[in-house]
Amino acid sequence: MNVTEALKIIQPLSDGVNPFSGEQFPADSLYQKPEMIRALCFVVSFLEIGAKKIEKRSNLPKNAGKKWLDEESSLLEKEFDTGKSFKELAVMFERTEFGIESRLFKLGKIEQSKRLEDRLVQLEGYRGNRGNPEAARSN
User: Fold this and answer.
1) How far is residue 86 from each of residues 67, 78, 93, 121, 130, measured CA to CA in Å?
2) Interatomic CA distance for residues 41 and 13, integer angstroms
3) 19-56 residue pLDDT tens
4) What range does the domain containing 33 cover?
5) Is the CB of residue 10 less than 8 Å from the CB of residue 36?
């Protein structure tokens, strides 16, 4: 079962409806109790968030977010030195342009751009490194 299939079952339950027959549950049904409705609505909201994350991830390049191998980093440096753009490198390495820019910064090949700085600030908060810019760079 995937998230979409689970939502097709749980969403109607949270509305007090039998997901298989489409009939409203009786007033004395467990599915009509306020606590049950709140719990099911809570689960539905998490499943919807999960579905959005899954869809977003499926639109990313194959290697996005994966650890860089030493060989890849070396090849990235060489290809960057030939004058390839972030976009060309992103396609070549199957990563995001931000991933390419971030790795080149960590390798000392480029200066930190405003875009990269803004993204690192976002990641610091996300990773719990707020107030410690070096922590985001060491990841």
Assistant:
1) 18, 13, 10, 21, 28
2) 9
3) 999 999 999 999 999 999 999 999 999 898 888 877 77
4) 3-58
5) no
